[in-house]
Amino acid sequence: MRVRVQWIDTTKGLSIILVTLNHAVSYAKASNIDPQHLEILCALLAPLRMPLFFAAAGLTAGSLRNARWRDLWEKRIALYLWLFGLWTAINLFLFFSNTRFKKSNL
């Protein structure tokens, strides 16, 4: 019997909830409902949703489960962490610059 790692399952579940929240907000906007606060939350969490899920899922990959942490860090985690940080910075810049632009045109 396979042993489940609780924090990985929790992380996957959290990311699935974030994706569901994003879809619910999109549906509400399409239905002319204004989920203003949730829309801001979804925009801030956008760079986290899918990378979080795939990172957690990748940790359970069979060939990597018995690898040393140093090898895992050098071959997998460091690159993805760097890309995630870069992508988050770009998203936050675009989000806040767009927010300032909208406020200045009111």
Characterize the structure shown.
- The chain has 106 residues and is mainly alpha-helical.
- The protein has helices at residues 6-30, 36-45, 49-58, 69-104.
- It starts with 5 loop residues before the first helix and ends with a helix.
Question: What's the topology here?
Answer:
Blueprint: H1 6-30, H2 36-45, H3 49-58, H4 69-104
Evaluate the radius of gyration. 18 Å
Number of continuous helical runs:
4
Distance between the termini: 60 Å
**H/E element order:** HHHH
Question: Which structural class should the secondary elements be placed in?
Answer: mainly alpha
Number of domains: 1
Overall pLDDT: 83
Summarize the structure.
This protein is 76% helix and 0% strand. It is an all-alpha fold and 106 residues long.
